[in-house]
Amino acid sequence: MSKAFVGVRLQRLREERGISQVALAKTLGISPSYLNQIEHNQRPLTVPILLRINAQFGVDVQMFSDDDEARLIADVRDVLAEVGGDTVSLAETRALAANMPGVARVLLELHRRARVASERAETLVATVGDSNHLPSFSLLGKHEEVRDYFNRRHNHIVELDEAAEAIFVDGDFVVGEAAQALMARLAERHGVRVLIGGSENSEKQRYDERSKTLHLADFLRPGQQAFQMAFQLAALEMRPLIDALIRDGGFAEGESRRLARIGLANYFAGALVMPYTRFLQSAEELGYDIERLSSRFGVGFEAVCHRLSTLQRPGMPGLPFFFVRVDRAGNVSKRHSAADFHFSRVGGTCPLWIVYEAFSQPDKVLSQIARMPDGRSYLWIARRVVSGPIGYGRPQKTFAVGLGCDLRHAHRLIYSRGLDLSEPDASTSIGLGCKVCDRQDCVQRAAPSLLERASLTLP
Questions:
Q1: CB-based contact 370:177 (threshold 8 Å)
Q2: Which family would the database say this protein is a member of (predicted)?
Q3: One CATH from 2.40.10.340, 1.10.260.40, 3.30.70.100, 2.60.40.420 for 7-65
Q4: Measuring CA to CA, which residue among 9, 6, 97 is closest to residue 46?
Q5: I need a labelling partner for 18 at 20 to 30 A (CA). Which of 87, 108, 199, 301 fits?
C-alpha cells in the first residue's frame, strides 16, 4: 500500500461488526488512544496491525488498499468533469473517496441514473408522434451497472470460481480437452444433446428448450465449443447460485438482471474451461505467455486475457490485470479491472494507447510502457483478434484486446523482456481520453479537456 491512512474504513468495520473502540483495541493488542488516532487518520495503519485484523476478522486486506480509492477518485473526477464541477479540487475529491467512499459511490450511482433518464428523455423527444416506435429504456446504464458490480468484486466471483473448479476435479476433466466431458455431463445429468454445425449465421450457440438440444456453430474450435457448453451448463446447473448472486448484487431492473445473468454464466464458463489452480500455476510457469496458455487450455487469445483479469482468489491471487476490447472506431465493448486502472466513463479512449496499434500489425503481440497523467505507469500488451464464421462472404468481427498491469509487476511477465522498466523516457504518456485528460501539450489532442476551464472564441 502506498499509504495506510484509512481510519474511516476501520470505523466502518467496527460498525458492521458491532464492536466498540475499546473492544477492538483490546483484540488488536493496542491502546484505545492509539486506535482512536488511527481512526482519525492521525496515525497510519501499520502492516502488523493489518495482519492482526485479517487474523481476527478474516477481512480481505484489499479493503485497506488504496487501489479502490484511486479508481473511485478517477470515477468521481469523470462525473465532475461531465457536470461542470471544475471548482472541486483534486484534494477535495481525494478526501471524499478516502473518508466517505460510500457517499462517493452513491453519487456515482445517482449520476448513472441521471444519464439514463436523460437519454430516455432525448429518445422520447426524437420519436414523439410515432406511436408504432416507442423507445425502450437505455441499455447504457444497465451495462455500466453490471460492469460496476464486477469491478466492486475485483472481477473475481469466488462462489462461481470454486463451483467450477469442483466440477472440473470431480468430473475428471482434462486441461485443454474439456469438450467431451462437458458433452457427456450435459447428456447424463440434464438430458441435453449437443449438435455441431448447420448454422449459416454468426450465432455461436442456440439452445432449444423443448427438444433439449444445444446447437453449436461449425466455426467454433474445440475450446470454444467447450466454453459454450459450459455456458449452457451454468444456466442449467448453477441457476440457484447465480440467482443468489444477482439478488445480493442489488440489480433492480429486469434488463440489468438479464445482463448480469449472462455475465455470471460467462464467468462460470471461463472458470470451468480454465480452472483456477491449474490455470494460475500454468500462468506463473509460462511467465504469463498468453499464446502458450491459449495452446495449453485450448482456447483463444481473448479468452485467456479475460481469464487472467479474474485471478483474485483470497489467499491465492494472481497478478491484478486490466482487460479491454475495442474495435477500429474506438468503441470499448469489454472492460474489466482487477486493480486500480480506471476506464473512463466519458470521452472515449487515447489514440496513443498500444491497443489501437494492434490493428495495423495483425497477429503480433505488441507491448507498451504507458504512463498516466497521475504518474502511475503500466505495462500493456495488445493483439488483434478475429472471430466469427469461416468462409467466403461470411462476415467476421475484428477487435483488438489489451491486457495491462501495474509496472511493479511487469518483471513477472515474459513480455517485459528487453524493456527498461526503470527508465521513465521509455514510457509513452497516454490519458483516459481527450475530454478527461489534462495533458495540454499532447500532439494527439482532439478536443479540449473538460477538466480545465476553457473559453471558446470565434476566429
A1: no
A2: Belongs to the short-chain fatty acyl-CoA assimilation regulator (ScfR) family.
A3: 1.10.260.40
A4: 6
A5: 108
The CATH number given to 319-436 is 3.30.450
Supply the DSSP string of 100-140, one letter for each residue: -HHHHHHHHHHHHHHHHHHHHHHHHHHHTT-TTSPPPPPSH
pLDDT tens for the chain, 459 residues long, are 444 556 777 887 888 788 888 888 888 888 989 888 888 878 888 888 888 887 887 766 565 665 567 777 878 887 877 776 667 777 788 778 777 777 888 888 888 888 777 766 655 555 554 444 444 444 555 677 888 888 888 889 999 999 999 999 999 899 999 999 999 999 999 999 999 885 556 688 899 999 999 999 888 888 899 999 999 999 999 999 999 999 998 887 788 899 999 999 999 999 999 999 999 999 999 999 999 999 999 999 999 999 999 999 988 999 999 999 999 888 888 888 766 565 555 545 788 889 999 999 988 999 999 988 878 889 999 999 998 777 777 778 899 999 999 999 999 999 998 888 887 677 888 877 777 777 777 888 877 776 554 333 333
User: Domain limits of the chain?
Assistant: 7-65, 158-302, 319-436
